[in-house]
């Protein structure tokens, strides 16, 4: 099973949707809430090569991007192979 990390903030509809997509696939993920934590936010920005919006999603340390990127990846059939 893939190792998935998703950086989020509470009440973020894009974060909620991205988590829902992953849950629908039966994927387990580590959620990192960056709300109010400057160090975690900087970690996210560094890992994502400058991505500062949430969510930022990583599968096996590969940066997938945000919610729209995850949804597009799923629509073209690229998500399932990464989750195995």
UniProtKB/TrEMBL annotation:
List residues of the Glutaredoxin domain: 4-64
Q: Which residues cross the membrane?
A: none
What InterPro entries has UniProt attached to this entry? Answer: GLR_AS (IPR011767), Glutaredoxin (IPR002109), Glutaredoxin_subgr (IPR014025), GRX_bact (IPR011900), Thioredoxin-like_sf (IPR036249)
Q: What keywords sit in the KW lines?
A: Cytoplasm, Disulfide bond, Electron transport, Redox-active center, Transport
Give the Pfam families listed for this entry: Glutaredoxin
User: Which PROSITE patterns does the record associate with it?
Assistant: GLUTAREDOXIN_1, GLUTAREDOXIN_2
**A Gene Ontology molecular function term of the record:** glutathione disulfide oxidoreductase activity
Q: Give GO terms for biological process.
A: cell redox homeostasis; cellular response to oxidative stress
Write down the superkingdom of origin.
Bacteria
Which CDD domains does the record associate with it? GRX_GRXb_1_3_like
Gene Ontology annotations for the cellular component aspect, listed alphabetically = cytoplasm
Q: What does this protein do?
A: Has a glutathione-disulfide oxidoreductase activity in the presence of NADPH and glutathione reductase. Reduces low molecular weight disulfides and proteins.
Family statement drawn from the similarity comment of this UniProt entry:
Belongs to the glutaredoxin family.
| Protein name per UniProt | Glutaredoxin
């Amino acid at each position: 099973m893939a190792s998935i990390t998703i950086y989020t903030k509470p009440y973020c509809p894009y974060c909620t949707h991205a988590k829902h997509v992953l849950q629908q696939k039966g994927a387990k993920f580590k959620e990192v809430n960056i709300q109010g934590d400057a160090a975690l936010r900087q970690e996210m920005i560094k890992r994502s090569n400058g991505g500062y919006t949430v969510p930022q999603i990583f599968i096996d340390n590969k940066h997938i991007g945000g919610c729209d990127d995850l949804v597009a990846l799923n629509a073209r059939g690229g998500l399932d192979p990464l989750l195995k």
